[in-house]
Each structure stands twice: as structure tokens, then as C-alpha cells.
Amino acid sequence: MSTRIEGRVLRRGDYRYESRRREACWHAGVPDRYPEVIVLANNEDDVVAAVRLAREEGLQIAVRSGGHSWSGSHLRDGTVLIDLSNLRHVTVDREAMTGTAQPGIKGSELNAMVAEQNLFFPTGHCTGVSIGGYLLQGGFGWAGRDYGPACMSVTGIDVVTASGERVHADETQNADLFWAARGAGPGFFAVVTRFYVKLYPRMRVTMNSGYFWPASAAQDVYRFVHEIGRQTPTEINLLCCRDPMTDGAPLISLNATAFTDTEEEAREQLSIYESCPARPHVITTRLNEVTDTETLSRYGTDPHYDETKHYLADSMWTHASFDDLWPNFEAMLKTWPPAPSHLVVFNWGGYEGQPERPSMAYSVEDELYYGLYAAWTDPADSRTYTNWVTNHMRAWEPYASGIQLADENLINRPYRFVTDENLQRLDVLRAGWDPDGLFVSWLGRPEPRTAAVDTKDSPVAGPSE
Ligand SMILES: Cc1cc2nc3c(=O)[nH]c(=O)nc-3n(C[C@H](O)[C@H](O)[C@H](O)COP(=O)(O)OP(=O)(O)OC[C@H]3O[C@@H](n4cnc5c(N)ncnc54)[C@H](O)[C@@H]3O)c2cc1C
């Protein structure tokens, strides 16, 4: 068995090991977990060799594509960390509207490449996120309500399995592995070295409107978003963050984006925000701007993600009324952490244009998505902000139908991220594909569902197996 590796191999204690370990995590809150070996793979053969190396040395395997896991789920003790950031090859077939992409490419880079051919792929809302982890955990992206989670646009994968074999998986070959790869996220039990994807015609018009309120308008704004979120075809990004515009107090910004064929249609779609009951109290607006997703990411989303800070994220899917969520939100407003800590709410499920879900591991969705992110500078504050996020999300559990692995806090608050049936099936598949438990799994694991919300009512609960 050859374990010759063309890329760099860094062992604990080696010069550059620690800096590389730290660089493997996108933010400053690098966990105290130490891989035994870091393999910077140059190609697929290196991945095979790294899997063999782990077996030979009796180590487990963790995988990194872009290192944007909030919890640093790829940094694990007793592992070979296979770092795929150099696997960045992309192909685009304009005629067939398909492509292939390796996991180290960033979503924003992929979208710039397909845009050159007037095509589109539903990549994430931030510039820096690589597609490897993003697609495996679902993929909550631009125009995602039109295309579903981005993993729905994956048609096949090339993987290196726990036995060191290179296999292809899609709907017809190794279909169970393909099923798992669309939603297992950090619990996937093989290394994906290439994704095969569907591409879409690029929308002619992307138009955005922004409204900014003081926190005193919160109830009216959030209630309005809960009421219209499901019906409107526009994509809502409702964000609460301390801001200079409100002298450092929490500011509520509603950004709505229309993806349409004509400017007239986009304006018509965005006109609904003029009927928000809080409209008279708005501090400022930015209405009907023709733009593109790259600009929206760069100036709208990215400023909230500062790699020099420590971060903790958590999340929930919900279809609760805002009145049920308000008491916890009101308490949060009184203790809001410093910028760029924020709460973001997106409308997602239950509207007419939504595509049908295929059978896949990804199986928990709902009308609205809440993501909560604390950011801090001093490591001494870690406990305070970890508790702040975890306890406030725990307070909302009676109204949550699940979380998204994109923003998981499983180590502190294990919560349902796929249906119970799908979790069981993932366990069975893992036992088959990785019988020796070579691949590490999720950092925490939810108990079978007991929460108070009856998700049978959820309009968008996905299929289970
Ligand atoms: C600033 C920021 C913005 C974000 N915005 C969005 C967003 O808009 N939408 C959204 O859906 N998510 C978003 N996320 C979450 C992000 O998609 C996930 O954290 C995702 O895992 C990041 O991908 P990555 O390749 O960097 O993952 P990594 O951190 O490299 O890996 C995370 C885990 O995924 C698994 N994994 C990664 N690559 C592979 C592979 N090739 N083969 C097998 N397993 C693999 C491993 O188990 C690993 O532990 C954001 C995160 C951050 C930090």
C-alpha cells in the first residue's frame, strides 16, 4: 500500500503545524483540538494516500474544504485532517447547463465562473465559503427558495471511501451514498473530491430594497415578516445588529431581493414592503436598486463576518407566530452583544414556487430560518457569549422544528437537524460504508424528537426514508 503524498504533510510539533491548524479555522476562536497529522492534498491520489495513512497509523479522519464551519468541526483530536483547499478545479458546460467543481473552490468564485457563461448556481450569501462543506450540509443560498437547498442541484459526487477506494455516486450508482451526501454535512463518512452540478440561466434582474429601523420598531417589523414571508416571492434578509446609525444600539435592517425577468416585475414584488406597519418609523431606506448577488454579498453580508473575531452560531427553523418569539427577543435586545454579533431571519419555505424535494438526508426545513451569531474579541468572554447564544436559542426550542447544520452549535445544544428516520438511516449507511468508524462525525447528536412543535404541520418538512 502506497502512502506517498505529493502535498504537504505536517505532524504535531512540526514547524508550520500550529499556524496551519489555526488557518484551518476561518475565525479567531480556534478550538483546542489537535489533529495528529495535517495533509494538504494536491490531488485525488493524495486523498487516497491520506486515508491509507490514517488506517496505518490507527487515526481517525476529519475533512476540511474551506474551514468555514463555525464550530471548527474539522479540527479533531486523534485524526488525520485531510485539507482539500487546493482541490479547486471547475468545468462548465454551457450547452448542457451542467458543471463539475472540486470542494476547495469558494461559492463566490464558482458563481463568478458560471456568470461568465450567463449561468447561475445557488451559492451561499457570503463571499468566502467553500462549496465542500456548504453542499454537504444542504446549502442555503441566493435564490434558494427558487432552487431549494443547493444540494438539490448536485447530481453526482466523486468520493474516496473509508476503504481508500475512489467511487462515483449519483441517483443510479451508489445511490445510498449520494442520498447521504445531500444533507449529512459534518457527519458524512467519505471524502468528496468532486461535485457534479446543475446550473441555471442567470436571472435578468436582481433588485434590492433596504429599510432600517430602531429596535423600537422590532415587533411591527418581525410580525410583518412572519406574516408575508411565506407569500412573497422576494427573498427577505432581516438583520438585527448594533450599528452606528442608531448610536451603537441594535438596528433592524430589512433587505429584500427580487430575482425576475424585468425591472417592472421586480418593483412590483418589492412594493409589498411599503405596506409594513413600521414604514412611518423608518430611519432610512434604499429602494429598488438594481444589483447582483456578488455586490449584495460584499456590501451587505460580508461586513458581519470578521475573521479576527471569535464566533459562535446557532439556528432554528420555525413557523411560529412572532408573538410567541417576542418575549425571548425582547430579553435579547436588552443584552445584545457588540457588533458584528447579529440575528438574521430569512423567509424560506411554504410558498408556491418551491421545487419538490427529492429523497435526501436533508429533511428539516420550515417557513422561516433564524440564525444567531455572537462575535467577540477577548477569549475571556467566550463563556459569556457562548451562554448568551445557547440559552437564547434554547428558550426558543418550543417553537423550533429543527436547526440547520450550516449554523450548528451541536457541541453546546444538540438539536434535530434531519428527521429521526433519516438520522437512523445515516447511522446504518455509516456502518456499511465506514465499518471501522474511520471518519469523525457530528460534534453532538440530538435525542429523538420531543419538542412541542408538531412538524407534521410544517408545510416544508422534507421526505424521510
Ligand atoms: C461567514 C460564513 C458565512 C456562511 N454563509 C452560509 C450561507 O450563506 N449558507 C449556508 O448554507 N451556509 C453558510 N455558512 C455555513 C457553511 O456553509 C458551513 O460551515 C460549511 O460547512 C462551510 O463549508 P467549508 O467547505 O468551509 O466547510 P469546512 O469547515 O471545511 O468543513 C465542515 C465539515 O464539512 C465536512 N466536509 C467539508 N468538506 C468535505 C468534503 N469534501 N468531503 C467530506 N466532508 C467534508 C467535514 O465533516 C467538515 O468537518 C457560512 C459560514 C460562515 C463562517
Automatic annotation (TrEMBL):
Cofactor: FAD
SUPFAM superfamilies named among the record's database cross-references: FAD-binding/transporter-associated domain-like (SSF56176)
Keyword Flavoprotein on entry: yes
Keyword terms of this UniProt record: FAD, Flavoprotein, Oxidoreductase
A Pfam match: FAD_binding_4
Family under the similarity heading: Belongs to the oxygen-dependent FAD-linked oxidoreductase family.
Protein name per UniProt: FAD-dependent oxidoreductase
Organism per entry: Streptomyces mirabilis
